[in-house]
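Let us practice reading a record.
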Amino acid sequence: MKRLLVLIFAVIIVAIMLQIKPVKSKAKRLVASLEAPNLLNKDSLTIKTRVNLPKGYKRVAYPKGSFQEYLRHYKLKPFGTKIINYDGSEYYWQQGHIGILDIPVPKNGLQQCADALIRVRSEYLWDHNRKDEIGFNFTSGHYCSWKQYAAGYRPKINGNQVTFHKSASINHSKENFYKYLNLIYMYSGTLSLYHELPKIEHAKDLKIGDMLIKGGAPGHIVMICDEVINNKGEKLYLLFQGNTPAQSVHLVKNLEDSNISPWYLLKKNAVIPVSNYTFGSSKFVQFK
């Protein structure tokens, strides 16, 4: 009898221990989750200060005044600001971003995904007295420069045929500059940028200002706005995007990897989900 009681007691103890093990494992997973690094500074108002460095990484250095540093220090609106469509309504999905760039959304609805990045690049060139470098191809392949537009030349478009004629007065004002950009928004897009801009053949060569692109109608495009590297030479990147319909330009989360979000590991020809769009076979381009 005594032996039977001992045996029963031993079986009970073993059963209890087996039941405790999963609970202990679950607790460890919970602790690991709680110990994941917090990569956001919600009180900060630039891209660089909004997002902390992942452990073991440092920022890649760029010259002062470069396009790369311009993007890295771009101003953000307060944390929690919502994505707003061009008509003032809230975008239907607010779960994919961690920051809104301080870029107005014109009410004409023209400033969509490619156009937002064209604007950022053009404003950088304007602000750094490089206005003569502002120019983009139409989807037809015809080049339209700010210099030409400011001199009064306007396109006459007949199907795929485009000719330019002097039909307006000379005007180098900032107001006219934004009218020029509206023209570019109408006749350029991801398809024209994909064919116009230099391709990046190796992901290891990516830098701030380069773009992940799907050229098409519709297509999509996002821009790299920060870059970090570890002692193994591995790089991670931050991305921002405009979208269709025209809306607030926003710094996106990495919804596929919460351990490094909002940082991204980028590879060529890979499937890369970015917020609410998935690039099926990643390609990269850069401004000239």
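A brief commentary: The longest strand covers residues 220-230.
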